[in-house]
Amino acid sequence: MMKYKILSILFIIIYFIQTLCVSFGGIGADSLSYFGIAADLPTLETNLFPLGYPILLRLFKGLFDDYFWASKILNCLFTVSILLFSYLKKFYFRETVLLFTGKTFFFVFFGAMSEGPFIFLLYFLFYFLHQIFSKDLGAYKNAVWASLILVGMFMMRYSGIYIYLSVILFCFLMYFKIREKKYFNALIVFIILSGLGITGYLLFNFFYFGSFTGENLRGEPAAMLPIYIA
User: Fold this and answer.
1) How does DSSP assign 37-66, residue by residue?
2) Fewest beta carbons within 10 Å, which of 25, 93, 111, 125?
3) 157 near 48, Cβ under 8 Å?
4) In terms of Cα–Cα distance, which of 106, 107, 149 is closest to 127?
5) Using an 8 Å Cβ cutoff, are 134 and 126 in contact?
6) Torsions phi, psi of 126, nearest 5?
7) Per-domain residue ranges for the chain?
8) pLDDT for res 57
9) What is the DSSP letter of 180?
C-alpha cells in the first residue's frame, strides 16, 4: 500500500506542474470562452457552455486574481480530493491511483477545461451509486446525493444528460430483474430528482436565452468523412 501512497503524492506534484512545462499553459480556445463567461458574471450573456465551471473559476479568481491560477488550483483540488477521499473511505484506493496513470485523467486535469470538474463529479457519482447498490441502509440519502452530483455534472457539461439517459436505459432493460431489489426504489428516486434538476436548468436556459443548450449559437455540423468512422 505504501507504494500507492507515494505514487499518489507524486501524481499531485506532477499534475500541478505539468501545464507549467508547456508554452500555452493548458489554455485553449474553450478555456478563453469559460474565462469570458466567468468575467461576465453575474451578468449572463450566453448559454453556449453551462455555468457550473465559469462559476467555479469566478469564485477562485476572487482569491488569486487570475483565471489561469484559479484553474490550476481547481485542478489541484480535484486531484487531491479524489485521492484523499478514496484513501480515507477505503474506496478502491489502489484502483483510483492507477486511474491517474492513464491519459484520460492526465488530459482532463491538464488545463482549464470543464472535463476536469465533470470527471471529478463523475467519480463521486460512482461512489454514491456504489453505495446504493451495495448498502442496505441509507439508500435514499445516497440517491439524493447522487442526483445532486448528476445535476452538477450537467451544469459542468451538457453531455451529462447522456449519463442520466443511460441510467434510465439500464432501469428499463433490467426492470424485471431488479424491480424486487432493495435498491430499485432508490434508483427511481435518483432518476426523478436528477430529471427535475436537469429539466429545471434546461427550462431556465430556454426562458432566459431562448435555447436549451445554445444550439442556435453553434455552426453547421462538420462533414462526416470515412476517416472519422475508422
Assistant:
1) HHHHTTS----SS-SHHHHHHHHHHHHHS-
2) 25
3) no
4) 149
5) no
6) -60, -40
7) 1-112, 114-229
8) 95
9) T
The cell numbers describing 2, all together, are 505504501
Burial 185-217 (b: 16+ CB within 10 A, else e): ebbebbbebbbebbeebbeebeeebebebbeee
Rounded to whole angstroms, the Cα distance separating 174 from 164 reads 16
Q: 116 exposed, middle or buried (CB, 10 Å; 0-12, 13-18, 19+)?
A: buried
d(CA 168, CA 185): 13
What pLDDT is stored for residue 198 in this prediction?
Answer: 97
Grid coordinates in use for 81?
A: 480530493
Q: What is the spatial distance between Cα 175 and Cα 192, in angstroms, rounded to a whole number?
A: 16
Q: What share of the chain is helix, strand, coil (3-state, %, to 5)?
A: 75, 0, 25
Tell me, what's the pLDDT at 230?
44
Answer for the pair 139, 186: CB distance below 8 angstroms, yes or no: yes
Is the distance from CB of 19 to CB of 72 less than 8 angstroms?
yes
- Grid coordinates representing 76 are 489541484
Reading the block at residue 225, the C-alpha cell is 468523412
